# Entry
Amino acid sequence: MSVVPHLPVLQVVVPLLAAPLAVLLRHRVASFLIVVSASWIVLAIAIALWLQVANGALSYEIGSWPPPWGIEYRIDRLSAFVLLLVAAIAAVLLPYARASIEREIPRERHYLFYTLFALCLAGLLGITATGDAFNIFVFLEVSSLSTYVLIAMGRDRRALLAAYQYLIMGTIGATFIVIGIGLLYLTTGTLNLADMAARMGDVEASRPLLAALAFITVGVCLKLALFPLHQWLPNAYTHAPSAVSAFLAATATKVALYVLLRFYFSVFGGSQIFDKLPLPEIMLVLSLTAMFAASAIAVFQNDFKRLLAYSSVAQMGYITLGISFESVTGLTATLLHLFNHAITKGALFMLVGIALISTGSSAMHRLAGLGRTAPLVSFGIVVGGLGLIGVPGTAGFISKWYLVAAAIQQGQWWLVFAIVISSLIAVVYVWRFVEVAYFREPPPTVGAVARVPLSMWIPTLVMVGATVYFGIETSINVGSAELAARMLMEPSR
# Structure
């Protein structure tokens, strides 16, 4: 029997089965082999699905119950794009994580790390693959609950506090989301996203729909850490193990943004609900606030991981800015920056994890002279920093170029200047690292990072190389993003 028709559900089932196997074996090497094998299988499935959606969207009926009566997994250009990103990040990061957690997590907990990583991966893939609104909430909770524990595995008690803060705010966000989904179900009588969109135009009562949109927007924006709902993120990224920080920065907020786009354009896009709300203006104000305020806060951070965390909040502002343009070019910029920021920030957190081996801390003063003691690490961080700024030759330039193009298309030249000026603030906080790493003497207690295993170096160099590659060869990221953007904008036209 061919497994090809079952690829949409296998994408989620494989890591979901790997998690209990890892915890039953209770052996760190066996657990690692099971989970890393699952991640590579998932990557192969994601590539196959990405190639298949070129011929049209894929629908998979759970239990042979046709939608909307049964749960449907639906893979289109947008979901295939995000699935490929999440699966690729996980497959690259897991070999890195094995050596990284040796220094940050006690060995007797390693099997738990791999178990929770597999659960988080399954949750993120499930959110992206499902075509059922309630399943989105379920998989969101699966990924969130595993994330809370992954963050708590950090090296000191501050990680426990960060996990607790994220748990409280994440629970509030999940509550808002499930209330919004409940209102949509009461109004439309269905949980299938495609069926919900089809029935939206027949709904006469707009107040329940407006309330549902408001609840979902606030809940999802909390999950994606859109300013000012970002308070959980700095501590979570700073005190989590390096591999966890890299995985969350590259995937979790990006999948949350996918949920926002899915509801905005696939569900509400076919109705006139947006005409009654100043939603583009709200997204514009919040995005600009994130771009400037979070970047300014990043400049004054004394911990490099916290600096990168606030940079992530600012970069989410660029991502959501594209939504405010209500155009294919703007939405293409959103999806491009979602992709480009994922690989760039993932690479940066992985590099910081390597630096921690020699410095023992991510505090800025401990990174002094890193350009001499670890020149390859420092060079990689500079390359990633150039990507955050949007320098030509990096992936970040491509998405910011599309943002500028979207602003010019609508004659909003002041937004062009805002994008440029906010990028100059990024120059300041990137220069802080350059100044510390290359123009200060290393502390006498810091040695060279000569013992970093290849299992950490190779995945990190792959991620750094990707930030440059996708800034030069743009057929995959730009092509996929543009096709997905056109697909999303069609229902609203």
Notes: Residues 278-493 form one domain. The longest strand covers residues 58-61. Residues 39 and 90 are 6 Å apart (CA to CA).
